[in-house]
Amino acid sequence: MLFRRDDINAAVAECRQTPGAVLLDVREADEFQSGHIPGAVNLPLSRIGETAPEMDTPLFVYCLRGTRSLRAVAELKRMGYARAKSIGGIVRYKGELVR
After folding, report:
1. pTM
2. Average pLDDT of adjacent 10-residue blocks, the chain of 99 residues
3. CA distance linking residue 54 with residue 30, whole number of Å
4. Interacting residues of 24 by C-beta distance below 8 A, sequence separation 6+
5. Catalytic site residues?
6. How many helices (H) and strands (E) does the chain have?
7. CA triplet 52, 85, 28: central angle to 5 degrees?
8. What is the DSSP letter of 93?
9. DSSP H or E run through 9
């Protein structure tokens, strides 16, 4: 399923209902620490090639506005991740954030 860049809320709900899925925040560590979606794992775009989940893991990728998540997904797909998708930016997330 493709998500509109402003539909991060529906995508987070789908992630939570998908067995084994990872909600991946590709912002830098200081951005992540200032507030992130509960349950998210931080893997900055600048380190995306260093460490990544198993190849068959469904990845729901977000950043601040959606630009870095698109770049991260392109890189992940280049690395062989077929189940990675950009879900946009946290600026449109309506739920509580973890700080």
Report:
1. 0.91
2. 68 96 97 97 92 82 96 93 94 92
3. 25
4. 40, 41, 43, 53, 59, 60, 61, 62, 72
5. 63
6. 3, 4
7. 55
8. -
9. helix 8-17
